[in-house]
Amino acid sequence: MNNHDFELQGQILNQIPTTVIAVDKDFKIIYANIAAAKMTGVKSQEDLLGKHCYDFSHNKQCRTPECCVFKAMEDGKMHSTRGQTSFSDGSIVYIEQSSAALIDNNGNIIGGLEFVLDVTQRVLDEERLAEQSYTIREMSTPTIKLWEGVLLLPVVGVIDSDRAQHMMDSMLNKILETSSRVIILDIHGVASVDTAVANHIIKITKATRLMGCECLLSGISASVAQTIVQLGIEMGSIKTTSTLSDALEEALAIINLEVISKK
Fold first, then answer.
1. Whole-angstrom Cα distance, residue 110 to residue 101?
2. Can you give the pTM of this predicted structure?
3. 22, 38, 201, 232: which sits with the fewest CB atoms below 10 Å from its CB?
4. pLDDT, position 134
5. Would you call 150 exposed, middle or buried from its count of C-beta atoms within 10 A (0-12, 13-18, 19+)?
6. 239-240 and 214-218: which strand pairing?
7. Domains of the chain
8. Helices marked H in 41-119
9. Tens-digit pLDDT profile for residues 63-80
């Protein structure tokens, strides 16, 4: 390989936006591309050469057996990690790092290679999406106090495993908070019920019963009732009503209250 080839390789590595650093077995930097200089906050690539990599960037794996570069130099395999890293200029970013062994022409491991990508914006976006998803789940499964000792959870849309678990958590926490004796699970807004949805509902009602609270299932339409029968789903001892008003009347009776129309 002639000098022109080496120069071309250097130009290619310098145009890669991903940080590329090579270290010897003492973790001293023997190569760094332009992206590495920008990420670490130094003026040029030369400012990194001969220095320890952990002098410019530091995370909780640095100088421990969990370090990706250390692992790569130990077993010759690729290792990756993701997390916060602080740099010598005081900046803190989230990075994805992959490390591989640096091998000479004789097949000997003489150091390690680090490939580092700044994923700070991606992590912030993921956190924002998680917060939005949590807010949407809270809004879609509101446990409402109808009366002293009576709760209502209206359900609209599709019930999957994650939503069913959130519904259960919301109901149980509200039961514990209010010491309620009855909760109405209204599924009038659920378009269809299959075996999975029915099983989720059965689990929810069993969990509330263990908390000493009776669960009433309301809003069962004719089509949903037919589906449950056709699928052969056994609803057990779950009390059901076709309308929310019927469920409320039943709930009040359980807590020894009676609604009397005023003439």
1. 8
2. 0.50
3. 232
4. 62
5. buried
6. parallel
7. 3-120 (3.30.450.20), 137-254 (3.30.750.24)
8. 68-75
9. 889 999 999 999 999 999
